[in-house]
């Protein structure tokens, strides 16, 4: 090969090598600075309190995180039901979720929030959060592999059905009623005479539509966003349980995140709580009228009759979950102020 051609070949190879090297450096730099995705899953449908809470959290967290990470929300059980997402948190395949009743299936003491008529109002709940959730329940959750970042809300629960208006516990006798995962909700409605069955929220609409279930119980925001008003005749404002919700992470996965990212997520989870409570209160007022407008008959039951029928549930809880029973006593004492 002539000298001139050999020189051109050498220069060409060097240029290619330089270009490849530069590309590799750019790719490595891009990989190093790839934005971390933090997935947040929940079971709430469009317009639900869960959706609004999660979206507000993501908005505020992403403002604070900048380019460090990005919270991405997956609602409507896209990442599974509550039980499945709890498993994913522990495995580290999901960063964040919003469990509610399902927490009692993992940490029995969380069953205190399954006790009928325990929480009087949101002010009472804030006092319970300070005296019970953070000092007692959150460490129990951590021992089971879950990190509680914030205390949000699922809401005051009411019964819908296709059989009759529910005015007193005996009106529930024999009724096939969907309940969420959690042993104490089952025991409560058994005490009232119903035939309760745990079922994922994503399956409930079809179960009501086909008559597999006569009714269900949920906060108004879940009832309306799940469109249960389209397949139910009666809404009874029992208000039998107030269920907190929790922004939760898997303890090990959360500990593996950069410290500055963890700090933003924890602070934002707590900062969003006032928005959650304000939105929940507004929805409580709006949704009864919307459900009535859909043709559902609404009634106010005899709550004293339900409270009287609930005593056995409290007694059983105190026996089966002694540490939970003590926390219930604390919550009841706090309630005297509200």
UniProtKB/TrEMBL annotation:
It comes from Hydrogenophaga intermedia. GO terms for cellular component: outer membrane-bounded periplasmic space. This is TRAP dicarboxylate transporter subunit DctP. Residues 1-34 form the signal peptide. Keywords: Signal, Transport. InterPro entries: DctP_fam (IPR018389), TRAP_DctP (IPR004682), TRAP_DctP_sf (IPR038404). The keyword Signal applies. Pfam families: DctP.
């Amino acid at each position: 090969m002539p000298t001139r051609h050999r020189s051109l070949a050498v220069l060409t190879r060097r240029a290619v090598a330089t270009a490849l090297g530069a590309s590799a450096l750019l790719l490595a730099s891009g990989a190093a600075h790839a934005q971390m995705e933090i997935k947040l899953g929940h079971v709430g449908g469009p317009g639900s309190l869960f959706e609004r809470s999660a979206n507000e959290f993501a908005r505020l967290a992403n403002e604070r995180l900048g380019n460090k990470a990005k919270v991405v929300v997956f609602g409507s059980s896209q990442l599974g039901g509550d039980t499945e997402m709890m498993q994913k948190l522990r495995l580290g395949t999901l960063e964040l979720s919003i469990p509610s009743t399902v927490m009692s299936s993992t940490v029995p003491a969380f069953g205190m929030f399954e006790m009928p008529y325990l929480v009087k109002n949101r002010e009472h709940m804030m006092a319970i959060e300070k005296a019970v959730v953070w000092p007692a329940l959150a460490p129990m959750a951590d021992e089971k592999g879950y990190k509680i970042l914030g205390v949000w809300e699922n809401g005051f629960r009411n019964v819908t059905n296709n059989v009759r208006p529910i005015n007193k516990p005996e009106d529930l006798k024999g009724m096939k009623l969907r309940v969420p995962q959690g042993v104490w909700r089952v025991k409560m409605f058994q005490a009232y005479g119903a035939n309760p069955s745990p079922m994922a929220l994503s399956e409930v609409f079809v179960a009501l539509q086909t008559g597999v279930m006569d009714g269900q119980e949920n906060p108004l925001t879940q009832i309306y966003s799940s469109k249960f008003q389209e397949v139910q005749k009666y809404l009874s404002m029992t208000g039998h349980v107030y269920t907190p919700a929790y922004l939760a992470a898997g303890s090990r996965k959360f500990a593996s995140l950069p410290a500055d990212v963890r700090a933003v997520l924890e602070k934002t989870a707590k900062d969003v709580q006032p928005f959650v409570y304000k939105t929940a209160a507004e929805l409580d007022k709006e949704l009864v009228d919307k459900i009535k407008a859909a043709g559902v008959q609404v009634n106010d039951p005899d709550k004293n009759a339900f409270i009287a029928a609930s005593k056995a549930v409290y007694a059983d809880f105190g026996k089966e979950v002694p540490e939970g029973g003590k926390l219930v006593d604390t919550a009841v004492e706090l309630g005297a102020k509200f």
